[in-house]
């Protein structure tokens, strides 16, 4: 059954750059796990149980404020991998991850993964690349929160989401994000009304199209220039 997901799970740059032999080692260690909508894959502070690839569904990476408000850091779609940080530093999970929809995960259990790393040290540079991509997006997030206007943060977020959706397309190609305005507002720690007004003005400027739970970026380059 895993075979039907192999092409999808091999898409990220860090994964596709691996020789076929290493990809096979990882896939041979995978077991499929289904998680129902609303259920948690792991909580922040949990000990790492494995590395995950997403076969079907969609996950929310969140943290909670002291008052219990959920802050959405990102949405993870099929083809993405997650859970690598606590696997490498042996510290607790950085964030809670739960399922927005019924989800099928490719899980490499912790012991299998550690055994693989010892047996195949050539895996390290590839996971280093994945970890560096996390650091880069965290830096982008910090920069955006520290110095940008809310409109600039919104544009940066939309562009980051395009990246995390892994769609590498010619620049003029419109890309649609399946994303509610509420989710976007949570990511920006703002209200849905404020985000709606900013989206409307981006739409009036011809940079995006807004539909129910969908935002189409007409051209990522034009949107980036709209800061
Ligand atoms: N801002 C983020 N964007 C994408 N993925 C994230 C983000 N924050 C955390 N994650 C993933 O969520 C996972 C939670 O468990 P880990 O800390 O092991 O590894 C983490 C990352 O893989």
UniProtKB/TrEMBL annotation:
The lineage of its organism: Bacteria, Pseudomonadati, Pseudomonadota, Gammaproteobacteria, Alteromonadales. PROSITE patterns: CNMP_BINDING_3, HTH_CRP_2. Residues 148-221 form the HTH crp-type domain. Signal peptide: none annotated. Keywords: DNA-binding, Transcription, Transcription regulation. GO terms for molecular function: DNA binding; DNA-binding transcription factor activity. SMART domains: cNMP (SM00100), HTH_CRP (SM00419). It comes from Alteromonas halophila. This is Crp/Fnr family transcriptional regulator. SUPFAM superfamilies: cAMP-binding domain-like, Winged helix' DNA-binding domain. It comes from the Bacteria.
